[in-house]
């Protein structure tokens, strides 16, 4: 599988085994698909989903043409942290719960975060920052930000 954003992640962002991918919504889907094929340090998935949600645009995206290989996604990274919200207007909470079950990863479910900023201004996300720092420290990876 070589979806159109893989070359960007590899060639432009230089994602490698020391990279932590952070993805929101379709960015979380991209991070999971990337980890399915490539080794990375870890990933943080926000408002993640694993089906086309019955939406035509999602069906056309190519993200869901092949079955997920959850074992590869888990094996190709040291850790995954997942953030979900029960009141997300776009991503039913059963989607991230299923991903959590498949990856057996760290999971944070909120009752009042909606789409984590897509439906309101979310200026800060300290839980996400803490999760990255904690996991990187745990695996002795230096935290650096890609510009």
From TrEMBL:
InterPro entries, sorted: AB_hydrolase_fold, RBBP9/YdeN
Pfam annotation, one family: Ser_hydrolase
Signal peptide as annotated in the record: none
Gene Ontology molecular function: any one: hydrolase activity
PANTHER family (UniProt xref): SERINE HYDROLASE RBBP9 (PTHR15394:SF3)
Protein name: Esterase
Organism per entry: Aerophobetes bacterium
Record lineage: Bacteria, Candidatus Aerophobota
